[in-house]
């Protein structure tokens, strides 16, 4: 962020510095200033314009003004507010019409609006890049599951609609979602991260070696999958749920003896943590062709049906990535999800 | 056992144990009965496992009266904690011990499963080994049948052997009514509504494993315990067939309607 010396902290950076907001990226002003990225949000938050101005720390551009020397103490709900120069000017200008109650409405609208923009931002090229840095720094914590051996997680929402559920953590190692350990995250709306980010992250950065733990993840040479690794179903095979499968499944025992499946209290959930020993068993394409040797190339019609709009070559491969020369090509998705009708 | 007598004398004599179980970080432990501790049979073999065994036992049972320096006192203190833990592992698989732990379980004093689809199911403490000093305590969720790390570092450093590898399984054998219903609910990673192919293929494979298990159980006429018994063929067919891939594969199967990105 462009916090030059002497400039007070921006609304965005103070929002991201609040306790419980550790998972948030700082959305760039460029992203917010591009109206295209905000499409549809006007109707989702109250006092949209004011909220947007608050986020961007800008003075409202309405009616040119009379005397501005008057300070309005009502606006200072917290000490920081005094530093928000833009806010203050805006408040002065309209201080007869904008009461403190308005201000708190605007403040909460701004948080809602920021969250919704954030949901889109972290799925944009710049945003997901910023999130990858936070991931590398371990800002999102790690999987509570013992057999995931502290695999790092990603913040996700279970809904894209605000107010439905709080933020969760997605573990790429077991492909499951968990409640964040600290209760301060239990007031953070999951929609501010959205349903797409977690999976999109995996597709965008397929070269993160998900089998690496501890110090290895910090060194960029060790934490990346070598390019000659085998690929399966569009992922490096070793990155497909490495926390699952043999050795990573809990086997209940009583005095050293396995509890049998036949026991009423026997294991019933091991499938959830299973993964084929020979991972190529997941190669449905190969299996299909082995079982149907003559069904070669005439399946294309099946793709055209319904909403399955299939692209032979995803457009704009490199848009989400910083390393366009890498052989991996994540699904290209326009920065704001405009292709979601796909 | 004379319930009333042990109750009333614990008011007076369980000074050390009261202190121990109410100390911060010791929330997973229940209080071991005096009667259990004073029956030598229950402590068989522990004398070689614990330094200053007799003093430690005296401390735990509040009959310690050795006049010693602080270092010695601290050594005996830590031996007493170790002894308590080792006896605890044995005690919690007795009828009385199970009941005490059951009470704590019902109050979710061991925490709740962090897995979203377990809907805060209460956890039970367990050890990955019965041998002390090998593995710290873990938490078992009977709903997803998996193990989790305690959230707090105070708990994460407790020896798992103080709970052992069997207790959390025995409790469900003794109280089968407590076995939670199992659920097939799960998280499906999606990108703009569409599944990620690699994850979806794994889910399909896991679903087959589950179906196999349910078939085996049905053949044996054993209840599988799933809440959604109607799930047989339900396989919620989804509107979205398209699945995303991350990196290019040699995969050319279009039957699965993959989205591919061949170069
Ligand atoms: Zn995990
Ligand atoms: Zn669980």
Automatic annotation (TrEMBL), chain A:
UniProt-listed GO biological process terms: regulation of transcription by RNA polymerase III
Reported function: Regulatory subunit of casein kinase II/CK2. As part of the kinase complex regulates the basal catalytic activity of the alpha subunit a constitutively active serine/threonine-protein kinase that phosphorylates a large number of substrates containing acidic residues C-terminal to the phosphorylated serine or threonine.
Short name of one Pfam family: CK_II_beta
Protein name: Casein kinase II subunit beta
Biased composition (Acidic residues): 59-80, 293-302
Biased amino acid composition, Basic and acidic residues: 81-90
A cellular component annotation (GO) from this entry: UTP-C complex
TrEMBL record, chain B:
Described function: Regulatory subunit of casein kinase II/CK2. As part of the kinase complex regulates the basal catalytic activity of the alpha subunit a constitutively active serine/threonine-protein kinase that phosphorylates a large number of substrates containing acidic residues C-terminal to the phosphorylated serine or threonine.
Positions of transmembrane segments: none
Any single biological process term in GO: regulation of transcription by RNA polymerase III
PANTHER family according to UniProt: CASEIN KINASE II SUBUNIT BETA
Region Disordered, annotated ranges: 227-263
Lineage, opening ranks: Eukaryota, Fungi, Dikarya, Ascomycota, Pezizomycotina
Family listed: Belongs to the casein kinase 2 subunit beta family.
PROSITE patterns tied to this protein: CK2_BETA
The protein's name: Casein kinase II subunit beta
Biased composition annotated in UniProt, kind: Acidic residues: 230-246
GO MF annotation list: protein kinase regulator activity
SMART domains: CK_II_beta (SM01085)
GO cellular component: cytoplasm; protein kinase CK2 complex; UTP-C complex
Complexes and interactors: Tetramer composed of two alpha chains, one beta chain and one beta' chain.
